[in-house]
């Protein structure tokens, strides 16, 4: 059985980041967009934690906590706005968010 | 004395500004009277100054600094010496008379006020030209008279021909003025000053080749202003302007500015007799050339204009041969009788409803006695019959040519004197004698206003007696000009020359009378090839049109259509179009859709990452 090393974590992180990026680009549903953002942030967290462990330096993991905190507050604000938007327009589809077009 | 100098200089300016106040309103008599009165004041001041400088004094003032930068120092300096006092007298006398005359002549013109504003502005510029104590001031006056001349030739600007003639005069003069400017630059470059006294003092230390160049370039300027060949065509066309303008600007004052320049710069020309000789040759050529064109012309004013050209040639002969005081003397005498001739022609034009062809006149001596007498007097003076002004001044030039052993010049000038007599009296005979042909054309001639004739009378008087001042004048101007007396030493030769010239001239006059007393169209003569050449002014205007104007127009068209439109404009348009099109094309990106924005953001991110990667690889490679 092969030992799981840093590279595996980094590959996982990259795959997750790519999935998140794809989600951001493709999804039309606002809620799904938030999920995609979460995936992006957490893929970075995995990388932070793995590299932190690899070097034996805790500051990476500390940073991951900061990211979790910021992600939580972002979701709190974002979901609040989403609810307001749903009440106003009855839809959370991105296509309805076009009032600022050039 | 300074006060008189300032009055003489600035009174015309005051008159001009006063008339300019009314320039947009219909005829206001006061706009004519005030400038005339101010010019009379200017004349009186000039007279005081003349009497003062006759005593050997000069007045030199520096009103204020004009330019002081580095080594360059040019003040508004004015100098009244014997030469400029002479010029001031000529200018103020003729212009005062022309102003008063114009009150009558322009009586029915709706731009009466504007006319006086420009006319007085001209006199002011001319005064600056003759009174300045440095070349820069002279140049300002030089350009000022050019500008006023342009405005006055094109005074009736609704006439196509008038505006054309005005532009022609202006452009021709620009060509020459470039030469003059180069001359002035060279002077400053080599002597470090533009003040006459300093320049002339420093000239003897300058390399003779450079002095020649300066002399040539200054003379190019003089050629333009004084309409010497090949820049002469504008003068005849300038006759489109009102006749008083022709009398003042294109006979008595402005066109003589070139002669004045050569006379003023005499220390320069004394160093370069070869250039002087060239000037004399050109002058003699122009004298004959212009006189020959006057022989056949059928336009009263053009005949007189050619005559002016021819007389300017005489002046340049004298100036070129170093007889500066003779040139100035002929300038003065010529100003009087030529202005008189023009004003007389103005009277005739008025009487004939602006008809200019003398073949349609005839017999006017009955209805226009005053004009007839004055024009005859002026013509006699022009022909150089004893004892009128022309005799003293013109014969003197002939004597100068003779004494300096330039017999070819002498012969040319002698023949020209005969031609002068012929065309002058051809004109007089056609206008005033013979049958009253004008009746056929339904004209009702009438004499001009009495005050116009009275205004002209001082000129008539001067045309008669100016010769008597020869010795007084000689003693005065030779205080600044080289003192060379011209006497034919052998009395027999002298008398043969003088009497011979007189007889020749009188014979020409009689011939003109005989031929044109009865004005019949001489078809056989008009078929003659020589006549045709003269009639078409040696085809020079035609040549200019064909070989300068047309190619230039074609060149301009190419530059406009092919270079400006297709290269310059296209480049500028392309720059604008690139931005415009880019905006048009990329504007779709701002569709307000969050999703597409996010996609673009990702594209940007990838691009940046790629750049960073390329950069880091490149760094590694370079370092490795």
Question: Could you walk me through the main structural features you see in this protein, from its secondary elements to its overall organization?
Answer:
The complex is a heterodimer of chains A (102) and B (624). With 102 residues, chain A is mainly alpha-helical. Chain A has a single domain, classed as Helix Hairpins (Orthogonal Bundle), CATH 1.10.287.3510. Chain A contains three helices and no strands. Chain A has helices at residues 6-26, 30-55, 59-89. In chain A, helix 1 packs antiparallel against helix 2 and helix 2 (30-55) packs antiparallel against helix 3. Chain A is elongated. The model of chain A has no long low-confidence stretch (mean pLDDT 89). With 624 residues, chain B is mainly α. Chain B has 25 helices and two strands. A two-stranded antiparallel ribbon of chain B has the order 1-2. In chain B, helix 16 runs parallel beside helix 19 (450-465). Chain B is globular, with a radius of gyration of 31 Å. Chain B starts with a helix and ends with a helix. Chain A binds chain B through residues 21, 24-25, 27-28, 33, 94-95, 97-102, and chain B through 587, 589-595, 598-599, 602.
Distance between the first and last residues' Cα of chain B: 91 Å
Q: Helix share of residues of chain A? A: over 70%
Strand content of chain B: under 5%
Radius of gyration of chain A, in Å, reads 17 Å
Write the layout of secondary structure elements.
The complex is a heterodimer of chains A (102) and B (624).
Chain A: H1 6-26, H2 30-55, H3 59-89
Helix pairs in contact in A: 1-2, 2-3
Chain B: H1 2-21, H2 30-54, E1 59-69, E2 72-80, H3 82-105, H4 112-131, H5 135-153, H6 160-191, H7 196-203, H8 208-225, H9 233-237, H10 243-252, H11 257-264, H12 266-271, H13 273-296, H14 300-320, H15 324-351, H16 369-383, H17 389-403, H18 407-432, H19 450-465, H20 470-477, H21 491-516, H22 523-527, H23 529-535, H24 540-586, H25 594-623
Antiparallel strand pairs in B: 1-2
Helix pairs in contact in B: 1-2, 1-4, 2-3, 2-4, 3-4, 3-10, 3-15, 3-19, 4-5, 5-6, 5-10, 6-7, 6-8, 8-11, 10-15, 11-15, 13-14, 13-18, 14-15, 14-17, 14-18, 15-16, 15-17, 15-19, 16-18, 16-19, 17-18, 18-21
């Amino acid at each position: 059985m092969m030992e799981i090393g840093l590279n595996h974590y980094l590959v996982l992180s990259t795959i997750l980041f790519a999935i998140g990026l794809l989600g951001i680009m493709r999804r039309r549903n606002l809620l799904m967009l938030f999920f995609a953002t979460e995936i992006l942030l957490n893929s970075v967290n995995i990388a932070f934690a793995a590299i932190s462990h690899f070097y034996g330096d805790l500051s990476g993991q500390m940073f991951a906590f900061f990211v979790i905190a910021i992600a939580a507050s972002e979701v709190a604000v974002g979901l609040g706005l989403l609810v307001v938007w749903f009440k106003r327009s009855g839809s959370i589809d991105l296509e309805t968010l076009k009032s600022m077009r050039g | 004395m300074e006060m008189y100098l300032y009055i003489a200089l600035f009174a015309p300016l005051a008159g001009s500004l006063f008339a300019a106040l009314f320039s947009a309103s219909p005829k206001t008599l006061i706009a004519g009277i005030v400038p005339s009165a101010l010019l009379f004041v200017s004349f009186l001041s000039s007279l005081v100054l003349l009497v003062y400088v006759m005593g050997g004094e000069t007045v030199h003032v520096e009103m204020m600094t004009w330019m002081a930068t580095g080594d360059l120092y040019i003040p508004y300096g004015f100098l009244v010496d014997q030469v400029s006092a002479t010029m001031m007298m000529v200018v103020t006398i003729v212009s005062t008379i022309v102003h008063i005359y114009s009150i009558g002549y322009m009586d029915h013109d709706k731009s009466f006020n504007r006319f006086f504003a420009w006319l007085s502005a001209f006199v002011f510029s001319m005064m600056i030209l003759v009174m300045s104590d440095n070349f820069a001031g002279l140049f300002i006056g030089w350009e000022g008279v050019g500008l006023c001349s342009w405005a006055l030739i094109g005074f009736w600007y609704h006439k196509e021909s008038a505006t054309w003639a005005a532009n022609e005069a202006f452009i021709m003069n620009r060509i020459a003025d470039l030469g003059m400017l180069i001359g002035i630059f060279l002077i400053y470059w080599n002597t470090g000053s533009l003040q006459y006294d300093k320049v002339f003092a420093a000239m003897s230390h300058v390399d003779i080749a450079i002095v020649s160049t300066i002399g040539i370039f200054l003379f190019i300027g003089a050629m333009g202003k004084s309409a010497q060949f090949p820049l002469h065509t504008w003068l005849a066309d300038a006759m489109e302007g009102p006749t008083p303008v022709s009398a003042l600007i294109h006979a008595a004052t402005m066109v003589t500015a070139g002669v004045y320049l050569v006379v003023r710069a005499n220390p320069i020309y004394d160093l370069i007799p070869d250039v002087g000789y060239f000037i004399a040759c050109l002058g003699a050529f122009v004298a004959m050339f212009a006189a020959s064109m006057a022989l056949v012309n059928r336009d009263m004013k053009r005949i007189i204009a050619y005559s002016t050209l021819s007389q300017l040639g005489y002046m340049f002969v004298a100036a070129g041969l170093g007889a500066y005081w003779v040139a100035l003397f002929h300038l003065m005498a010529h100003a009087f009788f030529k202005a008189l001739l023009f004003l007389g022609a103005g009277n005739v034009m008025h009487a004939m409803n602006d008809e200019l062809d003398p073949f349609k006149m005839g017999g006017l001596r009955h209805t226009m006695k005053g004009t007839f007498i004055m024009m005859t007097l002026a013509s006699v003076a022009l022909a150089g019959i004893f004892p009128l002004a022309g005799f003293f001044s013109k014969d003197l030039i002939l004597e100068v040519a003779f004494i300096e052993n330039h017999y070819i010049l002498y012969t040319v000038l002698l023949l020209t004197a005969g031609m002068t007599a012929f065309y002058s009296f051809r004109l007089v005979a056609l206008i005033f004698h013979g049958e009253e042909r004008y009746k056929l054309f339904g004209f009702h001639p009438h004499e001009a206003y009495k005050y116009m004739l009275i205004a002209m009378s001082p000129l008539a008087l001067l045309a008669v007696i100016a010769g008597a001042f020869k010795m007084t004048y000689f003693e005065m101007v030779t205080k600044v000009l080289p003192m060379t007396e011209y006497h034919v030493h052998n009395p027999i030769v002298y008398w043969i020359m003088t009497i011979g010239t007189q007889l020749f001239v009188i014979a020409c006059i009689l011939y003109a009378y005989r031929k044109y007393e009865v004005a019949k169209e001489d078809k056989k003569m008009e078929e003659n090839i020589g006549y045709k050449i003269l009639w078409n002014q040696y085809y020079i205007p035609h040549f200019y049109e064909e070989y300068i104007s047309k190619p230039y127009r074609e060149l301009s068209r190419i530059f406009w259509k092919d270079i400006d439109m297709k290269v310059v404009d296209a480049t500028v348009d392309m720059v604008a179009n690139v931005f415009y099109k880019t905006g048009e094309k990329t504007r779709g990106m701002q569709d307000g859709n969050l999703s597409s924005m996010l996609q673009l953001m990702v594209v940007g991110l990838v691009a940046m990452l790629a750049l960073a990667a390329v950069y880091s690889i490149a760094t590694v490679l370079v370092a490795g």
